[in-house]
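Dear support,

We are seeing what looks like truncated structure output for some complexes. This example has two components. We would appreciate it if you could run it in full and send us the complete token output so we can diff it against ours.
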Amino acid sequence: MKKPFYITSTLPYVNGEPHLGFATEIIRADVLARHRRQNDREVFFNTGTDEHGQKIFLKAQELGITPQELVDQGSEKFKALAETLNLGWDRFIRTTDTDHVAAAQKFWTICDNNGYIYKKEYQTKYCVGCELEKQDSDLEDGACPIHPDKDLEIREEENYFFKWSAFEEQLKTLYTEQSSFVKPSFRFNEIKGFVEAGIRDFSISRLREKMSWGIPVPGDEDHVMYVWFDALVDYISTLGWGSDDESLFDKFWQGGEVVQICGKDNLRQQSAMWQGMLMAAGIKNSDKILINGFINDADGRKMSKSLGNVIGPDELVEKYGADALRYYVLRHVNNHEDSSFSKEQFHEAYMANLVNGIGNLTNRILQMSSSYGVKLESEPAVHLEESLFHSYDFNGEMDRIWRMIGEADQFITDEAPFKKIKVDEDAAKEDLRYLLEKLFVINYYLAPIMPETYGKIRVAIEENQKPETPLFPRIEFGG
RNA sequence: CGCGGAGUAGAGAAAUGGUAUCUCGGGAGGCUCAUAACCUCCAGAAGUUGGUUCGAUUCCAACCUCCGCAACCA
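Here is the complete output from our reference environment:
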């Protein structure tokens, strides 16, 4: 019996547009889910939206709508990715879902009962110019960058704190025992260094009178939970943890292999904060945290609205199709490092590897096999264990598959069955049988990556007919 | 001396203590099954300065340049 496989993306904060970075994260999660299913494992693939907190609260005020209306609209944009990117998740959880709210409160209560939550005075820095609290990271030279001439007010309030520092040793032990807990290793080193430097308890509540858009703290009506404490619990609440039926939680979290994928900005939250929270609640830790890099523009600058250099997944999918974007983020977005992105690069990769690569190869093989009357008699063996997706090497697996495509192209040139057919029909047919088998195998490996293309090639082989319309049509570059 | 990462053909990437590989782009040729696709060949690269070594792109040191993080962030 193979171990069940649990994969979750982060829950993007609903106050934003889906961008290429998140598209990469969730496509990779989807590919892993499909790949593990292909390997006969039971899979639970989780995603959703993170919907509480101050930013939502303020934005809703600004728009003159309720926070609930705002998050209802926002979560639809992320839900739509299922169709845009062809994703097959098992649950799209919203942190405003009633079962999640109940689970988050239960999680709080357990941590509290175990002695890991306490109340303490908390100092905040408040800029009277902005009329907002400021984090240290918002400040420049200890002053608000927008109002550097105004002094910051120090305000005190009582907050609940999570006793994260109690888990410093346990976290170190976790990192020692699970030697590849965080991938890649340089990110693992980063978080180890962070924890070894000493961790501080963090605030996990906000005063309701100041910011009411959060999950109520159990037993204290004056406070709501800080958004991170609530949101991270989604990874288990989605499985029914804390509900009447914990069977999915037992199967996929307790009894399964738990993999989380996130961007590098989430390293700390996923691999240290959340792990500490799990320890506090007495729940098993995750098994692996995969950390992606960022996607920047062609000049290496962060994509942002203010720079006007944002390229969204929607426009790419509209022009090139979901499979093309899925292909691109797996092969040309670096497994771990930051990557640059431009429409030119994308177009180039599409033309070279999809149009001229797998698309053209499919046509040349099926053109010959159908006209020579050679059909695939039986399905060849596929060695699924060779896939590098087992070890989360997206780029490597893609290169491996495209090497096979190149070999098939070269075989056609070298053996020239289109010439042979005139002088040695049997030999030519033998070549075609080999090529059909090769195409079948390649296609099998492509299945988790490009589900739509996989289906088309499968039909083409079965019917022994080249696709009526090209798998990947030639497209003029523009826009 | 806050912590960390990265510098490889025109562009993007990879591997490696001993001939530096791949993709795109440039040049030449071949082929005609294929979506002007495919195949072959050619030109073109290790930031700087030292050190270790028979030999360094690889290991070490310094410097230069770029980029993250520093408790909100894919």
